[in-house]
Design a protein that fits this description.
By secondary structure, this protein is α/β, with parallel strands linked by helices. The protein has a single domain, classed as TIM Barrel. The chain has 12 helices and 11 strands. The strands form 2 sheets. Strands 1-2-6-7-8-9-10-11 form an 8-stranded parallel barrel, surrounded by 8 helices. A two-stranded antiparallel ribbon has the order 4-5. Helix 9 links the parallel strand 9 and strand 10. The protein starts with a helix and ends with a helix.
């Protein structure tokens, strides 16, 4: 099934996004973490993309290699051969985590691993990479299985997007912050480009819920993060582990049908329990 069709399917349960892969038993953003996400039966895996000094695309979140590879260097200043030779620390890294045999993967390796098995959310650490990332996706014939995303909730964001070429045919997700008093205008901006999905932040969950009917009518699904560092209004993974009804359940009741989490196994168990 195509990514857009899967997200648009009204009969599906809430989709689970494994943030940086299923990394509790593998290094984040590694091929092993992607394999774990596939084995876990999650819908989407999120990966972070950077570009090496010699123009190659690779997967890493941080601005330096210190947390995950133990060296305080800027990866964009290194060649792809240097980058991909580095071993990754387990899980989310740091000095307490042991090194593994996993190495930093290229975008090409990630897409080949995911092919026909899981959808991929491509998080560009530099939005100016849109063109080169889109070209790689098309070269590999992966247009139906990935998304590209960027801010789309303001006139300035829309102006930037209108100047981007080469992403036609690749599912696009608009990102927006819904605030009381300006939520209607934000929704209008999103509606003007009709992405298949909107990654939403909000000042109150009710503010976003109020926009859900018109977005749903336009075929736009809502993606929200329950990741502890970037969640809104205390709707965190940590809180969800203690009371999933109060966090994930409340989000789903507000029209959110895609949740990105660092606790994909717990979210899956919760969704499956609700279906019984």
């Amino acid at each position: 099934m195509k990514y857009i069709d899967h997200i648009a399917d009204p009969s599906r349960p809430c989709a689970i996004v494994a943030h940086r892969g299923a990394w509790h038993h593998a290094p984040e953003n590694s091929l092993a973490a992607i394999e774990a996400a596939i084995a876990g039966g999650y819908d989407i895996v999120e990966v972070d993309i950077r570009q090496s000094a010699d123009g190659m695309l690779f997967i890493l979140h941080d601005d330096t290699l210190e947390r995950m590879a133990g060296i305080a260097r800027v990866p964009e200043e290194m060649t792809i051969a240097e980058i991909t030779s580095l071993r990754l620390r387990m899980a989310d890294g740091g000095p307490e985590q042991p090194f593994t045999t996993e190495t930093i993967p290229t975008l090409e390796q990630v897409l080949e691993t995911a092919r026909g098995r899981i959808f991929v959310d491509l998080d560009l650490k530099d939005r100016e990479m849109f063109g080169i990332v889109a070209a790689k996706v098309k070269e590999m014939g992966m247009e139906d299985q990935v998304d590209l995303k960027a801010a789309a909730g303001t006139p300035e964001a829309l102006a930037w997007l209108s100047a981007q070429g080469g992403i036609d045919g690749i599912p696009f997700m608009g990102q927006a912050f819904f605030r009381e008093g300006s939520a209607d205008q934000t929704a209008e901006a999103i509606l003007s480009i009709r992405p298949f999905m909107c990654e939403a932040k909000f000042d109150r969950l009710e503010t976003l819920a109020g926009q859900h009917p018109r977005l749903r009518e336009a075929g736009i699904s809502l993606w929200v993060n329950s990741l502890d560092p970037v969640s809104c209004c205390g709707l965190t993974d940590s809180a969800a582990l203690a009371d999933p009804d109060a966090i994930w359940g409340r989000m789903m009741a507000s029209g959110i049908s895609v949740i990105q989490t660092d606790q994909p196994a717990a979210l899956k168990a919760y969704i499956e329990a609700r279906q019984k």
